[in-house]
Write a structure and sequence with these properties.
The chain has 257 residues and is mainly alpha-helical. It has one domain. The protein has 9 helices and no strands. It is elongated.
Length: 257
Amino acid sequence: MDLATGLGLLAGAIVLVTLIMMGGDLRMFLDLHAFIVIGGGAFAATLIRFPLASIFHGLPIGMKFAFTLRRMSTRDLVDEIAGLAEIARKQGPIGLERVEIEDTFLAKGIRFVADGYDTDFIRDNLERDRDNFLTHLDEGQKVYRSIGDCAPAFGMIGTLIGMVQMFANMTDPSKLGPYMAVALLATFYGAAVANLFCLPIADKLGLKQHDEDTNRTLIIDGVLMIRDAKSPALVREMLIAYLPEKHRHQEGELAAA
């Protein structure tokens, strides 16, 4: 699990609830009017912006990958692929069939190598798989960013509606306070939904999309080098280029040792 996402949301919720409880009652901040205008309005605008298929793909995959971490880091992948290249050199492609691989994308590529598929087939299949996955992540990012963009705007719409109702009942002073509270709560809901939930998740998905692009491209290159029977040392040396600069020297020292 990605603890940063969970801790961030929890910390934000604690801050809001604490501030609310310091100045009043939590029930003061519960309003159906504000909930309808934010939830319904943002969802309606998102339906207009995207096809249903993109929303049905984007929402769940976005929620899933915002709260999960990749099982293997880029550095671990380099070590894993170099080890697989060593096995292929000593035992041949058949030896790869008995290896248990944690990363499903890497396991798929190694299975293709063990089964003897040609290089073009392996490259085309893995690149298509990578591109489809990145497209779904991008859909999730765009859907959450759309909701984050719409929520404050509909909060303002809810505020304007509440103020119209307030001014329409100026003759009854007892209604002015509730209508003003409704108007302000719509803005509060919109700002909280956008800045605490939707936009941060969209940004997190953008970072994970970049990481997955790097890692899956690394895997494709590594699998193709194993398919071409490159030496483990060459495989490691080529894949080190995917690591951040500060980790490359460490990997080079380990390889030399």
